[in-house]
Design goal:
Blueprint (H helix, E strand, L loop, with lengths): L1 E5 L11 E5 L7 H13 L4 E6 L12 H8 L6 E5 L3 H4 L3 H9 L4 E7 L12 H5 L3 E5 L3 E2 L2 E2 L2 H9 L3 H8 L3 E8 L4 H4 L5 E5 L9 E9 L2 E10 L11 E6 L10 E12 L6 H18 L2
Parallel strand pairs: 1-4, 2-3, 2-5, 3-4, 5-6
Antiparallel strand pairs: 7-8, 9-10, 9-14, 10-13, 11-12, 11-14, 12-13
Helix pairs in contact: 6-7
Length: 293
């Protein structure tokens, strides 16, 4: 799969007959994946997807550009078009967006969801697209009678409902981050943790302990992941992510890790002593090992 990054001043070579799936694709959930499948199946020539390097709307978000590219690797698309949007784009009318961005790419066919909007103040709809392209409108994918959406998934994460969020995503929810040196409190009780600083303004799941998998240099390890403010050892002003990586004793400082959240184990709470905290962590670890046999 090709990755083509471009901006208004540096458009890529025209790919005549291009089929493009269009959207923001935050989280690249099952509804988005359906667009990718339809674009691939209906293309007469190259099939691709286009999204923006700078996401629209107020964060936090489910996925960075790098995440979207990684998730898309399992699709059958030929190319990903990543548009480095700038302030000029926000004033484009719907017609300008079509004529200054989509047409110069060589686009012949577009694949969009029923609710796709574009242009200044989201003025553009599907009917205008039909004046320029062959248009395939993909029905919105539903689960339990509700539209699968990034907003719904964010709400589930905020409630700690990881399994339900992952079901809608079609993959595990992941956060990428760099490991920094923390206060070493975990070492004192036999549970050293990697203090993970997210590389992007991700949605943080509800505070608590999670069963997960941490990827270090591409290798997967079972992990106990904590999201919270460390109330037992000194409450922090905002939540952080810490991962105790099971059966791993190497230095991972300054490395980029991927934390995949699989299930919610328990809520965060303040313990009366470090010994009580350690006893609970042993129970959490045993449960995680049972889940991830």
């Amino acid at each position: 799969m090709k990755t083509i990054r471009f901006n208004l001043d540096n458009l890529p070579a025209k790919e005549e007959g291009l089929t493009l799936a269009l959207g923001n694709f935050d989280g690249l959930h099952r509804g988005h994946q359906r667009l990718f499948v339809e674009a691939s199946l209906s293309a007469s020539k190259e099939a691709g997807a286009m999204f923006f390097a700078s996401p629209f709307g107020k964060g936090p978000y489910l996925s960075s550009v790098a995440d979207k590219c990684r998730y898309a690797l399992s699709s059958r698309l030929d190319a990903l078009y990543i548009f480095d949007n700038d302030e000029r784009l926000y004033s484009f009318s719907a017609k300008e967006f079509i004529e200054k961005v989509l047409l110069p790419l060589g686009t012949k066919r577009v694949v969009v969801g029923e609710d796709f909007r574009y242009g200044h103040n989201r003025e553009g709809g599907i009917e205008l697209l039909k004046d320029y392209f062959d248009v395939e409108v993909v029905p919105l994918l539903e689960e339990k009678g509700q539209k699968i959406s990034s907003t719904w998934i964010k709400a589930l994460l905020s409630e700690g409902k990881i399994e339900e969020a992952n079901e809608l995503l079609g993959h595990s929810y992941e956060i990428a981050g760099n490991v920094s040196r923390g206060y070493q409190n975990g070492v004192k009780i036999g549970y050293p943790t990697a203090n993970i600083i997210p590389t992007f303004p991700y949605v943080l799941p509800r505070n608590g302990v999670y069963c997960g998998v941490v990827y270090v240099l591409g290798k997967a390890y079972r992990a106990m992941i904590n999201v919270g403010t460390n109330p037992t050892v000194g409450k922090l002003s905002k939540p952080i992510i810490e991962a105790h990586i099971l059966d791993y004793d190497e230095d991972c400082y300054d490395k980029t890790l991927y934390c995949a959240f699989l299930s919610f184990i328990r809520e965060e709470r303040k313990f009366s002593s470090l010994d009580e905290l350690k006893a609970q962590l042993k129970k959490d670890e045993a449960r995680i090992r049972d889940i991830l046999i």
